């Protein structure tokens, strides 16, 4: 159910689209960074051996 935005339809739609796009980029960046940090931590732990 979309409200009638009249002459501001394009601006509001673009603002929603930009916001959702930025949120998607941020979520992707956090996910990729988490994978990289997890990989680096695993390599560090493996290089020190099981008993530290």
Task: For the structure shown, list the relevant keywords.
rod-shaped, mainly alpha, 52 residues
Concise overview:
The protein has 52 residues and is an all-alpha fold.
Q: What is the secondary structure topology, with strand pairs?
A:
Layout: H1 9-48
Describe the structure.
With 52 residues, the protein is mainly α. It is built from one helix and no strands. It has one helix at residues 9-48. The protein starts with 8 loop residues before the first helix and ends with a helix.
Name the poorly predicted regions.
none
The separation of the N and C termini measures 59 Å
Total DSSP E strands:
0
Evaluate the radius of gyration.
21 Å
The total count of helices amounts to: 1
What portion of the residues fall into strands of 2 or more residues? under 5%
The residue fraction in helices comes out at: over 70%
The string of secondary-structure elements, in order, is H
Largest sheet: none
Mean pLDDT across all amino acids? 91
Shape: rod-shaped
Q: What structural class do the secondary elements suggest?
A: mainly alpha
